[in-house]
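tool_call: predict_structure(chain=1)
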Amino acid sequence: MIKEILSRLRAFRWQKLLIIWAVFVAMAAILFAERSGIQYKAAKFKLDYLPRTEVEPAQTAMFGQPVTCLLLYDSGQEGTDLAKEQFDQLLLDMKVSTQAVDVHTTSLEGIPEFDRYKTVVVLMSDLDALGSRLIDLMNWVQDGGSVLFAMTPQKTTYFDAISPKLGVLSSSWENKTAESIVPTEEFMLGGGQRYELSDPFESSLSVSLREEATVYARTGDEGVPLVWGTKSGAGRVVVDNIGIYDKIMRGIYAASFSLLCDAAAYPVINSAVFYLDDFPSPVPGGDGSYIRRDYGMSIADFYSKVWWPDLVKLAQQYSIRFTGVMIENYEDDTQSTPVRQPDTQQFRYYGSLLLQQGGEVGFHGYNHQPLVLPDTDYKDLYSYRQWPSEDAIVAAMNELIDFQKTVLPNTEGSVYVPPSNILSAAGRKVLGSKVSQIRTIASTYFEDGTSLPYVQEFGVASDGIVEQPRIVSGGMVGDTYMRLAAMSELNMHYVSTHFMHPDDLLDVDRGAAEGWETYKGGLKDYLKWLSAAAPDLRRQTGTECSAAIQRYAQLTVTLDSTDTAWILRLGNFADEAWLFFRANEGTPGKVTGGELTRLTGDLYLLKANADTVRIEKKGV
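tool_result:
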């Protein structure tokens, strides 16, 4: 039979046309498969969620831990409330069990004895408030204690009395402007570069330091010392002379705290995530004139022929796996029963390409209306609408979830990104109690001066939802604030969460006039900086980052130092854990129960494979 078919094919006078026809049929089949959005596999996460019931929020995990740090603050002094707000969260995230004492309402005799603690943090600029107990504190340091003066000190009688022990040679009544910060390369990830500070003012004490003091950060213009440390007898003193107590500075203060004692260890997340908001979605409306100006094509063609191919190239170059969050439609109807989107080609095509790329698809909304009830007032800042009831919110979310299962049947989203980062307390409660498929909310890390954004900390909420705030966004062209934020969070949580929108190039406020090449250049510059500052940072999807946050949030750490080794005991250890380890005295050697990678200077990244890790000291 086969010989007969071959014989007839040879006798067929148009046999060369058959080859051409076969090629066209094969090309058509490939294009059909691609456009049909079926050539993908379900996302295989390298790290997946722990069950909700098996994860503890950080506050719960820390309950009952031995107190190792005394935080002294004076609620009557200006700026202390801002500093304490940041340090309360910072020390919780670093898993430092702390006792806070307000010297404004506590007698000097009522301040606990310092030898009950490993470290002391002083949050007051006027040190005279401590009176004679300041002398007691410095005597305790002489005997081996460690203290961080985290607020810019005022030049007072008591400060002058102890300043030599703080590494200060001389000081003046004049304060200097902290216009920027330049951490040393050996001190912080991303160090050796200048980072601009927003709204700088005369916040730093003018000082000259003794030779034995080590400066870890200065201002970029005058070189004013902003972070320094010194040995005092058998103990350690670290001084933060920055005078700015915003969330964006946490990484610098965390790094300062890690300079105390002979070694320090604290949990980190180890994750870089890149979100594409409103993707996949219908081709958005907007002003495509700049795209027409630069490329001479429609918005839809620009996405498929320029924007997405460029992102794929960046993803390949920097090992990114994008997390897209889906919008079903851009209607503003919140009153009617949700209606199924009839045109699914865009969703299948881009959704499958995203998954082929190793990425993930989550949720942005049935439409682009934030999950809020009628009691939310947008105050003329947005033209969004409210949802009439909790049931309406649930119906909209269920429609979006069902729609995703229809167009991308082999994937199951779990990450929700609020439109414009707006999510009310009522909407948040609905997600946690009535939409079980949502395991993560990825909103924003920073406030915007209004009450509308859902501002988050990295962690796990009491209802089991993972809180995964996004830190930076867009092409960041000339945005020094976001670069400082990115550097700070590398050193606080060892994390980078970034987002961008396909329609950024349709909005002048988001970079449309500058064009895609400028926007892309800014994004590439950030990726280049990130890869240089943290080459070992894991590139993950939203779900994988949340899984890492679960493990990070509940982890507790106890560090004991002997003559020959550092021993870390980890509470609530699941299957892996990541920590920063700083060796202030001694050099790490053989590691049992984990793997140690040097990041910069004396700072290491520790991967723990067991709940007890032993790090031997070299040469001992």
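agent: The chain has 15 helices and 28 strands. Proceeding to next step.
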